Amino acid sequence: MTRPDIMVKSHKGTGGFIPPVDEAIKYLGNDEQDEVIKNAIKVMNQGVLSYIAPIWKDWGQVKLVYDELFKKMILEEGKLDVDMLELYQLQIDAQRK
After folding, report:
1. Per-residue pLDDT tens for 25-40?
2. pLDDT over 90 at 89, yes or no
3. What whole-number distance in Å separates Cα of residue 7 and Cα of residue 66?
4. CA-closest candidate to residue 77, choices 90, 64, 66, 68
5. Which listed site, 4, 15, 53, 65, has its alpha carbon 20 to 30 Å from 94?
6. Which residues contact 57 (CB under 8 A, 6 or more apart)?
């Protein structure tokens, strides 16, 4: 698990978890799962979502919706609520430019 190539394999498909050592980055390819990790690294290095933020009026508000949804569905209720997802999606859509 400590080898950089294994770190990349174990982090693919997990939603952007970043391998914790720089040496692992050289094992990233160009498939979609690798791009997720590359974008996560970009956010960590630059501190902004420069590749996605331009499509939103206020990325901070979009992030707050995701944070609230995670809190309610995962931490509090512990279940998938389709109606709640639709409600939050409307809030996110309202932030598009």
Report:
1. 888 889 888 888 887 7
2. yes
3. 27
4. 68
5. 15
6. 95, 96, 97
